[in-house]
Amino acid sequence: MRRLIRGILILGWILAFAGPVVAQEGEIVYVLTVDGAITATINDYIARGIRLAEQNEAEAVIIRLNTPGGDLTSTTRIMEHLENARVPVIVYVWPRGGMAASAGTLVLLAAHGAAMAPRTTIGAAHPVASPGAEEVVSPEMMEKVVNVMAEHAALFAQRRGQAAVDWAQRAIRESATAGPEEALELGVIDLIAADVDEVLQGFDGRTVTLGDGTSVTFRTAGALTQDVPLSPIEQLLQVLINPNVAFVLLTIGIQAILIELSSPGGWVAGFVGVLCLALAAYALGVLPFNWLGLVLIGAAIVLFILDIKAPTHGALTAAGAATFIAGALILFNTPLSPYGQISLPLVIGLGIFTALFFAFVVAKALQAQRPRSTTGQEGLMGRIGIAKSRLDPEGWVLVAGERWQAVAEEGPIEEGAEVEVIRVEGFRLYVRQRG
Questions:
Q1: Would you call 388 a catalytic residue per the annotation?
Q2: Looking at residue 382, what is its pLDDT?
Q3: Contact predicate 350/243, CB 8 Å
Q4: How far is it, in rounded angstroms, from Cα 377 to Cα 404?
Q5: Whose CA, among 60, 82, 198, 249, lies 20 to 30 Å from 306?
Q6: Cα angle at 323 between 317 and 324, to 5 degrees?
Q7: What is the per-residue pLDDT for 129?
Q8: Which value, to the nearest 10 degrees, does the dihedral of the CA atoms of residues 136, 138, 143, 146 take?
Q9: What secondary structure does DSSP assign to 177-224, as a single string?
């Protein structure tokens, strides 16, 4: 009986440790998902995913990619990560109807394996200058960039054959595009797959060469997949590069700072303002924007303040609102931007709200800063004095260090009582008893 129990315990111990051994020996594929513009955040995300796969000796990494493009610096860094990865990387253009356009095409070419879902698109990778930078980037400089990127793409496409190299250069120079069938025929991709399971099945048994020259044969049929999601910080940073979010943060930041300046001593408005402006600055560091837009937004704020200091019956406020809206529209005016377009209703709504906000807050701030009159009749209004005789209704009071003839407005006032000036007519004060 003891032997039976001991045997069962030993068998249980073996089975308990057999699970992890099987999972360790069984193929694991890490799956990353990029759905949006390619940015520095995506570069860090892909680098993290590849590093995780290497540490856990995964069979491969699949990057599900759906992007209209992104910035060139982040793209070239991602290409470096893929080239130097010690684990094979497959880029899968997904879902149906998605695309890996512009920068996404370069990422696909740098992968060790490539697949596309039905009705997806790749290509149109011609570099473009950011709005407002056309004057800085000369045609000669742009030609150099195009030549470098065309050659860079061709080097990565060499592993796929000459037809793929020719197409890659046309995608850079002529913004050529391709669907799944054409890309497969040209050798740009390895297969067309409806989902990740078909990708795993289709690559099983294929051999690829890593950047260091090592040949690796995929063993992906039936492999376990492990999703690697964006971290909370990475998700936040991706949300910030939406032009609408950046514009809202910029507007809130300006208004919060104005509240802090108009009512010093608190910290909440100042903290919110600094935080929003810092996040907006990060977004502007990533998004292509036009400096003219920022200048117009600054000019609009000046117009709002001028209308408060020198009232024009709302003329400058209306001009400021129009200038603010124009500046916001110009700020992010890149056609077909991979980061999306700014919402016209949002811009108009925030423009009107900002005009009303300035009209209220700045007026209150200026009113609070305006010194109170201390001389003449206006300076006597509301002053507190002492009745120097009984007022019934007339008598004498001492106000502002001087003796005045006074009239009690609300009934007799006894000598020595405190009085408050409520009206002045000539050299006569009209008072009421205080308290």
A1: no
A2: 82
A3: no
A4: 12
A5: 249
A6: 90
A7: 67
A8: 20
A9: EE-HHHHHHHTSSSEE-SSHHHHHHHHTT-EEE-TTS-EEE---TT-E
* Reported confidence tier of residue 134, pLDDT bands at 50, 70, 90: low
- Kindly report the average pLDDT of the chain as a whole number: 85
Say yes or no to pLDDT of 21 above 60: no
- Which residue is catalytic, options 130, 138, 144, 215? 144
Question: What single letter denotes the amino acid at residue 161?
Answer: G
DSSP annotation of 158: G
pLDDT exceeds 60 at position 11: no
3-state helix, strand, coil in the chain (%, to 5): 50, 20, 30
Two tokens at 84? 């130097």
Instruction: Specify the residue for token string 């899968």.
Output: 92
Q: How many CB atoms lie within 10 A of CB 393?
A: 15
For residues 431 and 420, the answer to whether their CB atoms sit within 8 Å is: yes
pLDDT classification of 41: cutoffs 50, 70, 90: very high
Backbone angles phi, psi at 267, to 5 degrees: -135, -20
Least confident of 89-93, 276-280, 371-375, 399-403: 371-375
CA distance 320 to 299: 7
Residues in the chain: 435
Sequence-distant (6+) residues with CB within 8 A of 177 are: 101, 121, 122, 123, 124, 171
The values of phi and psi at residue 98, to 5°, are: -80, -175
Q: Note whether 393 and 408 are within 8 A (CB).
A: yes
Q: Determine whether 345 is exposed, middle or buried from the number of CB atoms within 10 Å of its CB (0-12, 13-18, 19+).
A: exposed
pTM of the model: 0.72
**Residues 6+ positions from 164 with CB-CB distance below 8 Å:** 109, 157, 186, 187, 188
Q: Where are the alpha helices (DSSP H) in 205-342?
A: 232-240, 243-262, 268-286, 291-309, 315-331
Whether 309 is catalytic is no
* Domains of the chain as residue ranges with CATH: 21-231 (3.90.226.10), 241-369 (no CATH), 376-433 (2.40.50.140)
Strands (E) located in 36-131: 60-66, 89-93, 99-101, 113-116, 121-123
Q: Which amino acid is at 73?
A: T
